[in-house]
Design a protein that fits this description.
alpha/beta; Aspartate Aminotransferase, domain 2; Aspartate Aminotransferase, domain 1; seven-stranded mixed β-sheet; 14 helices; 35% helix; 11% strand; binds pyridoxal-5'-phosphate
């Protein structure tokens, strides 16, 4: 085990000492058993450490992490909002935590009731008929929805419809999910207002179209103003409309996507309805559908009859997409968040998400050009190449010195040097003002002392990493 100290220069040293022990095992209360020799290893190359050294090592590492519980985290698209601690206390209730997934339905009525009510609340928020809580993430919800469209087309005897339309502002998971689901994709360009180019859409609608995948508000943070007409055109061409619901925190309590004609949509419970998700999960990408696709939902889903709850497979279900019942702990967190926030609160969530983003945009757009000058929704996209030789990456790295997590950079792809900023609804005006001050100071530095930006971050445990090496050749296991 290696350790890096808290001073500026990393001091790497081996902590293991032969014979140190940090745990004690209870006396065995079962007969001992000789393992077959091919399973047992004589030498196991593990570090030998006392408990205190291990605690200090991991505590030190955790302090190097950036987290929403310590600082502002304005990642665009990801909705890094505050996660109320009451969610954690609800999810760690032993009645939820220790419930065995194979228990009889009659002994899991509380869990089934929670699942049923969560399905109903989310259908109400989104304007849908039925929902499945199975998918474990947004992208998993996308794949489920795409497979539902595929099954519905097969049911209609139209197996040659294999073209999915995807706007050029889409999240990368959209084309990936289509491809995994056996479709080909065609990119639809955005027009000068940042919305789908309607002429290009019309031209793409032929009898090979299976559907369209749409994010609303889109990843430029702009409301898709022609959403009703888009759904109508795609339906008339014989296709279905998939809604990417990752940006629902701009809409809750104000606009129901199902009512605009979207056939199937995922909610990122871990974005819109809280749950910590930095670092990769766990999440929940529950998928909801209108009348046309509801019979194809993955299952099982929870249903209610005369006050009793049970699980059932939708009539023409695509089947299971996950073992057991989804990421149940995340479902408890989302339901707790929904009950605590209430209907009026959910509307205020959307209003404040939009207000906060527009406030940042108004206070930054004189220094950081915003290519689509319309009023934004819960996020906006600016450009970071604000001075000679200064790039978005330099702005992002310098922000770390000011104590802020950088926004999303170089996405969406249609804006060169993109800085995609989402403050979320949970940040105070004081925090937003500090961020604005930092961004304005950095803009001044970009003109006067650009080398400060090029060499940033100056005060982080690690500076500019080789991201390709980290992704391609990760070192994941201990080598003594
Ligand atoms: C986050 C996100 C996704 C993918 O969701 P995951 O839960 O990360 O799989 C898809 N589309 C958009 C617009 C997103 O922001």
């Amino acid at each position: 085990m290696n350790a890096i100290n808290m001073r500026d220069e990393p001091l790497v040293y081996e902590l293991s000492r032969n014979g140190r022990v940090g745990c004690s095992l209870p006396k065995a209360d079962v007969p001992s058993y000789e393992l077959p020799s091919e399973l047992a290893r004589a030498e196991l190359d593990l570090p030998e450490l006392d408990e205190l050294t291990v605690v200090r090592h991991f505590t030190r590492l955790s302090q190097k992490n950036y987290s929403i519980d310590t600082e502002f985290y304005p990642l665009g698209s990801c909705t890094m909002k505050y996660n109320p601690k009451i969610n954690e206390s609800a999810a760690s209730n032993p009645g939820w935590k220790y419930l065995h997934p194979l228990v009889e339905e009659t002994q899991a009525q509380g869990a089934l009731e929670l699942m049923y009510k969560l399905q109903r609340v989310l259908c109400e928020i989104g304007g849908f008929e039925a929902a499945s809580l199975q998918p474990a993430a947004g992208a998993h919800g996308e794949l489920s929805g795409v497979l539902m469209i595929r099954a519905a087309l097969a049911h209609r005897g139209e197996r040659t419809r294999r073209k999915m339309l995807i706007p050029d502002s889409a999240h990368g998971t959209n084309p990936a999910s289509c491809t995994m689901g056996g479709f080909t994709t065609q990119t639809i360009p955005s027009g000068p207002d940042g919305n789908i180019d309607m002429a290009a859409l019309r031209a793409a609608l032929d009898d090979s179209v299976a559907g369209i995948m749409i994010t609303n508000p889109n990843t430029l943070g702009l409301f898709e103003r022609n959403i009703v007409e888009i759904c109508d055109l795609v339906h008339r061409a014989g296709g279905y409309v998939y809604g990417d619901g990752a940006n629902m925190n701009a809409l809750t309590g104000i606009f129901k996507p199902g009512n605009s004609g979207i056939d199937v949509m995922h909610f990122n419970l871990h974005k819109t309805f809280s749950t910590p998700h930095g670092g990769g999960g766990p999440g929940a990408g529950m998928v909801a559908a209108g009348a046309a696709l509801a019979p194809y939902l993955p299952g099982p889903i929870a249903v209610e009859h005369a006050g009793n709850y049970r699980l059932t497979m939708p009539e023409k279900s695509i089947g299971r997409v996950k073992s057991f019942y989804g990421n149940f702990g995340v479902l408890v967190r989302a339901y707790t968040y929904l009950l605590m926030t209430g209907a009026d609160g959910l509307r205020r969530v959307a209003e404040n998400a939009v207000l906060n983003a527009n406030y940042l945009k108004a206070r930054l757009s004189d220094l950081y050009p915003v290519p689509y000058a319309r009023r934004c929704m819960h996020e906006f996209v600016a450009r970071g190449n604000i001075a000679e030789g200064v790039h978005t990456l330099d702005i992002a790295k310098r922000l770390i010195d000011y104590g802020f997590h950088p926004p999303t950079v170089y996405f969406p792809l249609i804006v060169p040097e993109a800085l995609m900023i989402e403050p979320t609804e949970t940040e105070s005006k004081e925090t937003l003002d500090l961020f604005i001050e930092a961004m304005r100071s950095i803009a001044a530095e970009a003109g006067s002392r650009p080398e400060l930006l090029h060499e940033a971050p100056h005060h982080a445990p690690v500076a500019r990493l080789d991201e390709v090496m980290a992704a391609r050749c990760p070192i994941l296991c201990y080598k003594g």
